[in-house]
């Protein structure tokens, strides 16, 4: 009887061992490749996502409209086609020697400056930048702007850099004044363009030969040349007299009498009584 009991117990233990062994073997079964990959993918999803590329349509400085250049008037004035009609544009911050004013002789390096602007802009398109620190138009209704050729050439600055123009500030500082003045100093020191070709004081010449003579202390009238090349004289006591400075290299000078000023082609400032 005991043998039968032991035999039954042994049989039961064997069955239990088989069941437990099968369970353990099932738990260690290797997962299919697809299931393993899905686990790895889930774990990697916690990483920081990559920064998306900048959109190709994002606005850039070069995305402003292009305007066809219809004609180059002179070194610092052009005509463009704007909204279907011609618009005259006067470049801000520069003044090239005169070539087209019927009241004046052609100035030193004026023809070269005009040719250079034509070379750069003939049959080209440009972008324009309006400066909020300046008036939108001058008294001749010309649009005042910075001009960039379609390939990015900053025409205003390049005219100064290559010695085809002087830096010019009309009344109040403008956006690129400091840069343009630094650029002019470099052009002058390196003798580029008009700084080499024109004798001192002749790049923007004065009218009579006697203008080069140093005035005596009784000559207190200031002869100024504005951005348009117009000669304007200021008397002591006039509204702009104290802030008007004389730059001999531009052809500006002190005058002794109003008669002398008018005879030489200067007009009286509008804010003089």
UniProtKB/TrEMBL annotation:
SUPFAM superfamilies: Staphylococcal nuclease. Keywords: Endonuclease, Hydrolase, Nuclease. Residues 63-197 form the TNase-like domain. It comes from the Bacteria. Signal peptide: none annotated. GO terms for molecular function: endonuclease activity; hydrolase activity; nucleic acid binding. The keyword Signal does not apply. The keyword Transcription does not apply. This is Nuclease.
């Amino acid at each position: 009887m005991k043998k039968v009991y032991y035999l039954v117990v042994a049989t039961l233990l064997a069955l239990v061992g088989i069941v437990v062994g099968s369970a353990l073997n099932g738990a260690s079964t290797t997962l299919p490749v697809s299931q393993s990959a899905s686990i790895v993918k889930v774990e990697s999803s916690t990483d920081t996502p990559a920064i998306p590329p900048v959109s190709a349509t994002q606005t850039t400085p070069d995305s402003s409209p292009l305007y066809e250049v219809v004609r180059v008037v002179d070194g610092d004035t052009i005509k463009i086609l704007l909204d279907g009609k011609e618009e005259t544009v006067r470049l801000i911050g520069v003044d090239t020697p005169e070539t087209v004013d019927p009241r004046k002789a052609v100035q030193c390096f004026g023809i070269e400056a005009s040719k250079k602007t034509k070379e750069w802009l003939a049959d080209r398109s440009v972008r324009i930048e309006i400066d909020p620190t300046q008036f939108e138009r001058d008294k001749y209704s010309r649009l005042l702007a910075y001009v960039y050729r379609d390939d990015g050439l900053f025409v205003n600055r390049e005219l100064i850099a290559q010695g085809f123009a002087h830096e010019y500030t009309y009344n109040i500082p403008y956006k690129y004044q400091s840069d343009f003045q630094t650029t002019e100093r470099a052009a002058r020191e390196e003798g580029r363009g008009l700084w080499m070709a024109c004798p001192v004081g002749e790049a923007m010449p004065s009218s009579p030969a006697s203008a080069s003579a140093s005035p005596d202390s009784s000559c207190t009238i200031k002869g100024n040349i504005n951005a348009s090349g117009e000669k304007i004289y200021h008397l002591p006591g006039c509204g702009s007299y104290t802030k008007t400075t004389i730059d001999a290299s531009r052809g500006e000078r002190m005058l002794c009498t109003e008669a002398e000023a008018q005879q030489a082609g200067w007009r009286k400032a509008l804010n003089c009584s």
